[in-house]
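Much of what follows relies on a compact textual record of a protein's fold. With that in mind, consider the following protein and its fold in token form.
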Amino acid sequence: MCLATPSKVTKIEGEWVEVQSMEHTHRANISLLRNKGVNLGDYLLIHGDLAIQKLPEDEAIQILEMIKTMPSTNHSHEHSHEHPHKHEHTCNCE
């Protein structure tokens, strides 16, 4: 099962952002949110490498806290140790 997770924008580079979520940093494409005005510090709902929705900060924090309490959740994602900003996704969502 794939889970879209709230992530905080830490850097903006054109249609890509660097985001922080669950102690991991990765990049996401914000082309779907082009007309939403993505800014540093915003919380985005990320699925794969795609930002799909802006979230109010309080809602994002509430979701992250809920995820942390889920006993069956592996709170870490597989990451490439060769490049600290490369986020490798292993889910096959269909």
